[in-house]
Design brief:
Layout (H helix, E strand, L loop, with lengths): L1 H7 L2 H47 L1
Keywords: Membrane, Transmembrane, Transmembrane helix
Pfam families: T2SSM
GO biological process, one term: protein secretion by the type II secretion system
Length: 58
């Protein structure tokens, strides 16, 4: 089914579909992997700073 659909497409259409697939994969990686990791690191760094500040106060 997909194979026949793909075979019917012209070269330029295939390039557009491939470019959109790459773009979609990039957005997915950003939202599902990079952004959560960045948020996790940021939260833990601020928590570590608070702990260091508390220890210094003691």
């Amino acid at each position: 089914m997909i194979k026949s659909w793909w075979a019917e497409k012209s070269t330029s259409e295939k390039q557009i579909v491939a470019a959109l697939a790459v773009l979609s994969l990039g957005v997915f990686c950003w939202l599902a992997v990079i952004k959560p990791i960045d948020t996790y690191i940021e939260e833990h760094q601020s928590h570590a700073q608070k702990i260091k500040k508390d220890i210094k106060w003691m």
